[in-house]
Write a structure and sequence with these properties.
Elements (H helix, E strand, L loop, with lengths): L2 H31 L5 H11 L19 H5 L16 H4 L3 H8 L19 H5 L4 H7 L23 H4 L16 H9 L18
Pfam family, one: Cytochrom_c3_2
GO molecular function, one term: metal ion binding
InterPro entries: Multihaem_cyt_sf, Tetrahaem_cytochrome
């Protein structure tokens, strides 16, 4: 092989080695500029990430996601009714601030979360502020989900006026924070909790002498 060609190749190899060496030095220099994370610092970071939070002064502006992460994340889950109400905040529905403040006082993020909210009720007035009752009744006039064993059908949004029916709220049938796979079944199940013989008409189960 011609010496001139060999010399050219050697020159290229030396140049490449020089470039790689310079890059290595640069990388090491940059790495040296980074703050060293000692094991003590790392352990403190881990502890901060898992540190328990105890509430002493709950208010409607408190970040509910700190503890109730599943419920808050349901606002983005299209299977949950909450996802269709993105304009609402937690406090818009859970408005019993006095009771909630009392229940949250001294609670910790490490505490076991309730599987169902039993200590506060969502007022139907919140729902009816946007959903017109008469329009709902019209839309469900032909729904047959609430049909008893005698074939009597009741409109779920136009129930007969009784004292018991007046106590029914929207959330008795409509679930907000979990996937509601069988709305018809859920509503009918709520009816039969009182109409236990699956008969809607009064005085047909228990005859009076």
């Amino acid at each position: 092989m011609d010496n001139s060609i060999r010399n050219k190749r050697k020159t290229k190899v030396r140049a490449a080695c020089a470039v790689m060496g310079a890059m290595s030095i640069l990388v090491l220099a940059l790495y040296g500029c980074q703050p060293a994370q000692t094991s003590d610092t790392a352990s403190k970071s881990d502890a901060a990430a898992t540190e328990s939070i105890t509430l002493t002064d709950w208010s409607p502006s408190t970040d509910c996601a700190t503890c109730h992460s599943n419920e808050v994340s349901s606002e983005a889950d299209t299977a949950c009714t909450a996802s269709k109400h993105a304009s609402l905040s937690c406090a818009d529905c859970h408005s019993d601030t006095e009771k909630l403040a009392k229940l949250h006082n001294g609670t910790s993020s490490d505490d076991r979360q309730p599987t169902r909210l039993k200590q506060t009720e969502v007022s139907s007035e919140v729902c009816l502020g946007c959903h017109d009752q008469s329009e709902l009744a019209q839309k469900t006039a032909s729904v047959t989900a609430l049909t008893d064993s005698n074939g009597k059908t009741v409109n779920p949004h136009d129930l007969p006026a009784t004292e018991t029916h007046q106590a029914i709220t929207c959330t008795n049938c409509h679930t907000m924070h979990s996937e509601q796979t069988d709305l018809d079944g859920d509503a009918k199940s709520y009816c039969t909790s009182c109409h236990h013989a699956d008969v809607f008409e009064c005085y047909t189960c228990h005859q009076h002498g």
